[in-house]
From TrEMBL:
It comes from Bradyrhizobium betae. Pathway: Carbohydrate metabolism; galactose metabolism. Coiled coil: none annotated. Its cofactor is NAD(+). This is UDP-glucose 4-epimerase. Gene3D superfamilies: NAD(P)-binding Rossmann-like Domain (3.40.50.720), UDP-galactose 4-epimerase, domain 1 (3.90.25.10). It is an enzyme of class 5 (isomerase). NCBIfam families: galE, PRK10675.1. It holds the Pfam family GDP_Man_Dehyd. One of its GO terms (molecular function) is UDP-glucose 4-epimerase activity. Its EC number is 5.1.3.2. InterPro entries: NAD(P)-bd_dom, NAD(P)-bd_dom_sf, UDP_G4E. GO terms for cellular component: cytosol.
Length: 352
């Protein structure tokens, strides 16, 4: 049985699908502070298998310990956390409390329950401003905001835990820019309020919820002047967790980038999304956004060597799948119900 913290969230729900599809049993824990339990109802509907859901906070050590013991958990995939960069500048202590203290309590509960296998959601944001490209795992770590620093503190804490020679097997996964959705269109990213990330904003413009995209600067030193990122399909990202779990056979620490190694510009994304959706994406050029870098993409070599994992999905597929989710759920999970029999049979016809 695998415990997935933050299992109802965007990446967590796709990780649950990957685990269930691989025949593993799952208990998902979430405090639903940034998600909707409907995501997990849909996960079960997609996989045709059930999982256990517990409404709980990772800072509640007793409850987490009880869950670990009650379900005979053997490994934890830890995604629960707060992730908004701007918000972390405004209320940094909330981020340290939720992310760092939350992970400390989780690890304590794991130690008490003698569960010592952990896959942790880190972020490419730990690298800060790239000093060279592509970013490999040896690149210096220098995050530029409180959110990124919570991720770095946790990575360091987990490194010390492994150094204690107490049998811990830990993998830090540094995600680049996860986008897209499950190909069924039933599960995807459902941001609260105005999206700050590119793909959710573009998708909301395409569906007509927002008038136009504002591109944060077209005067970067890049071929078309707009920022370049390593967008990775959330399904590829989720499968990276399964590879990490399979690799954690010996005590020790692994730290791995999950990216594609390809950089695409904001304008590349706009054009690809227009083609995928058949809708036009009006945009205007604004000032650069504070804290943005011109170019950021991964060196995925170590992920291939250490985990035997590579991403396979193209930017076009990312946009198509993101669009299908947006089209079928114009308001995300809000007011959502389980997929209708028609939706479910359409999915089964397509995907078996
Ligand atoms: P998300 O907000 O959709 O998922 C996080 C989930 O954790 C939510 O369901 C939320 O309700 C839950 N949660 C938060 N605090 C909790 C707590 N104290 N106890 C229990 N549950 C709690 O975000 P996501 O995009 O799915 O991100 C998952 C993880 O990946 C996060 O740790 C995030 O920092 C990391 N990450 C995300 C990205 C990205 O672009 N989405 C990039 C790099 C790293
Ligand atoms: C942001 C976070 C990063 C986090 C990542 C994934 C910042 C400074 N960084 O990275 O820590 O790990 O999200 O969650 O917030 N863009 C626009 N208009 C928009 C939105 C975005 O032009 O409305 C541009 C940005 O300027 C950037 C690109 O699109 O060039 C990607 O932006 P975004 O999706 O926010 O991701 P990151 O900036 O890479």
């Amino acid at each position: 049985m695998i415990l997935v913290t933050g299992g109802a969230g965007y990446i967590g729900s796709h990780v649950c699908i990957a685990l269930l599809d691989a025949g593993l049993d799952v208990v998902a824990v979430d405090n639903l502070s940034n998600s909707n339990k409907a995501s997990l109802d849909r996960v079960q509907s997609i996989c045709g298998r059930s999982l256990v859901f517990r409404l709980a906070d990772i800072r509640d050590e007793e409850t987490i310990c009880e869950i670990l013991r009650a379900f005979g958990v053997t490994a934890v995939i830890h995604l629960a956390g707060l992730k908004a960069v701007g918000d972390s500048n405004v209320r940094p202590m909330t981020y340290y409390e939720n992310n760092v203290l939350g992970t400390m309590r989780l690890v304590s509960a794991m130690k008490r329950a003698n569960v010592k296998t952990l896959v942790f959601s880190s972020s490419a944001t730990v690298y800060g401003i790239p000093r060279y490209l592509p970013l490999d795992e040896k690149h210096p770590l220098d995050p530029t905001n409180p959110y990124g620093r919570t991720k770095l503190v946790i990575e360091e804490m987990l490194k010390d835990l492994c150094r204690s020679n107490d049998g811990w097997r830990i993998c830090n996964l540094r995600y680049f820019n996860p986008v897209g959705a499950h190909e069924s269109g039933l599960v995807g990213e459902d941001p609260l309020g105005v999206p700050s990330n590119l793909l959710p904003f573009v998708a909301q413009v395409a569906i007509g919820r927002r008038e136009k995209l504002r591109i944060w600067g077209n005067d970067y030193d890049t071929p078309d002047g707009t920022g370049i990122r390593d967008f990775i399909h959330v399904i590829d990202l989720a499968s990276g967790h399964l590879s990490a779990l399979r690799q954690l056979r010996q005590p020790g620490l692994l730290t791995v980038n999950l990216g594609t190694g390809n950089g695409y510009s904001v304008l590349d994304v706009v054009r690809t999304f227009e083609a995928a959706s058949g809708r036009s994406i009006p945009y205007e050029i604004g000032e650069r956004r504070a804290g943005d870098v011109a170019v950021c993409y991964a060196d995925p070599t170590f992920a291939k060597d250490a985990l035997g994992w590579t991403s396979t999905r193209s930017l076009q597929q990312m946009c198509e799948d993101h669009w299908r989710w947006q089209l079928q759920n114009p308001n995300g999970y809000h007011g959502s119900k389980l997929p209708t029999v028609r939706e479910r049979s359409r999915h089964l016809r397509r995907h078996g």
